[in-house]
Amino acid sequence: MRVILSVALFSTLIASEPAGAQSLQQFEKKVTEFTLANGLHFLIIERHEAPVVSFHTYVSVGSVDDPTGETGMAHMFEHMAFKGTPTIGTRNWPAEKAAMDAVDGIYARMDQERNKGLRADPKKIEAFEKEVNEAIAKAESYVEPNEYDRIVESNGGVGLNASTAEDSTNYFYSFPSNRIELWFLLESGRFLHPVFREFYKERDVVREERRMRVESSPQGKLVEMLLATSFAAHPYRNMPGGWASDIDNFRRTEAEKFYKIFYTPNNITIGIAGDVNPAEARRLAEKYFSRLPRAPLPPLIHTEEPVQEGEKRVAIASAAQPFLAIAYKRPDQYSPDDATIDVLSDVFSTGRTGIIYKEMVRDSKIALGAATQPTFPSGRYPSLFLFFAAPSSGHTVEENEKALDAIIERVKKEPVDDETLRRIKTKLRAELIRKLDSNSGLAEALCDYYANYGDWRKLFTELDDYNKVTAEDVQRVAKMLLVPSTRTVAYTYAPREGGAK
Q: How far apart are CA 501 and CA 499, in angstroms?
């Protein structure tokens, strides 16, 4: 897992280990952390250079938690969190609530008819569809569109956004420091009383996102099929956007159940960075977020991916630019070899100095681009070590695969030289330094590391882990990880007339 460190706060980290330890001690003085009685954890770091504060809400729920038949639900709820509350975003909440309940009632009757299967009456279903569309239109007539966004923006808020990944959902934006209490009010309110308004309108938006990012994208299709092929059982096989048929059948009642299970205070971490008084922030946290009722922790994922005992291949027809992806099974981010896997990735792919760029893109010119990703699609559970390449004009996927195989075998046999290893470690430390130069980056990283490792100090100890990696470690992990029996090869090909490959 990689993050970044603030230039101002962590410039000494690229020096010796004792300096790193000293920086950790200095940094700890700037961090305040506390947990509310309901389990919600706060991490606050003071940076008074500018009158701005960044907020990051990290919820430990992602696409791995999507219920069976409801893939994409974590992403769907992310969209719902911007729809306001019973007092924000409505012209008449009691009437709107009654109208939304009426929509759910019609859907329930329609689903009951559909569940009859071959005995379902198409005319009844058609009538229900017309009725539900009219009911949705009535419910939407009470909506004050985008009011939540307008309140944030009119008070100087910037960067209002969210993201859904495999293991987390994140909400973030920044406010002027004199609007801190407004953030506490708004953020606690949207998780205390989510209203799920415009649910079916937003469902169409989510469906369109899938259409653009996957169905109309050769790369999106390739990634989707790579994951679905690599993972036979584990939910990493499902992309955060979900499958089309699941999205089409989302119901508001299902989203409400999902929220009650996963959006519990003890499953949420909040990071605050910038011009903030920690004592005042704690007072406001108690005032607003203590309203969220304590609940049991969500269930863990018990499905384990079975051992892969042979290479898998999948081909996707596409007339566009060809792509190649090769993925090897790897352990989760808690593996003692995690830092070595990061370094191994950079041996192959460190910008223009990585082996596969120099040999495949610069020298032989068989690829337009080639790179690696050490952890894909995420790291909380065993995942994949990924290679990908885009063949250049006149060159093939097969040619690129052969070149990658040759490079991989060479890395297994020949230890990486000291200069390359030194350069990679410097680059990894520089990445950590650059990316946390912003308040938003700091808030995000504190949340990431606390939620994933139980301690934000992993920010610092990860640098020590990189420093300890040796050439022998890299070679050992390459031999252990990059074996044909655990790999999946996915590629696109241009179909010939008649559908032949």
A: 7
Q: Which whole-number Å values give the CA distances from 453 to 78, 299, 319, 473, in the listed order?
A: 24, 18, 44, 23
CA 450 distance to own-chain centroid: 16
Q: Which amino acid is it at 122?
A: P
Q: What is the reported pLDDT for 78?
A: 94
pTM above 0.90, yes or no: yes
In the structure, what pLDDT confidence band is assigned to residue 221 with cuts at 50, 70 and 90?
very high
Most distant CA pair in the chain: distance in Å? 76
Interatomic CA distance for residues 25 and 14, integer angstroms: 16
How confident is the model over 280-293, as pLDDT tens digits?
999 999 999 999 99
Which pLDDT value is given to residue 500?
Answer: 52
Q: How far is CA 272 from the centre of its chain?
A: 20
Reference 59, options 259, 300, 303, 246; nearest CA is 259
Radius of gyration of the chain (CA): 25
Q: Are 89 and 148 in contact (CB under 8 A)?
A: yes
Residue corresponding to tokens 């649910």: 199
SS3 assignment for 54-96: EEEEEECCCHHHCCCCCCCHHHHHHHHCCCCCCCCCECCHHHH
Domains 53-90+143-289 and 312-493 share a fold: yes
Q: For the chain, which residues make up each domain, given as ranges?
A: 53-90+143-289, 312-493
What is the three-class DSSP state of 147? helix
Q: What whole-number distance in Å separates Cα of residue 95 and Cα of residue 93?
A: 5
Report yes or no: 472 and 464 within 8 Å, Cβ to Cβ: no
Domain 53-90+143-289, CATH: 3.30.830.10
Collapsed DSSP state (helix, strand, coil) of residue 218: helix
* Superfamily classification of domain 312-493: Metalloenzyme, LuxS/M16 peptidase-like (3.30.830.10)
3-state SS string over 262-283? HCCHHHEEEEEEECCCHHHHHH
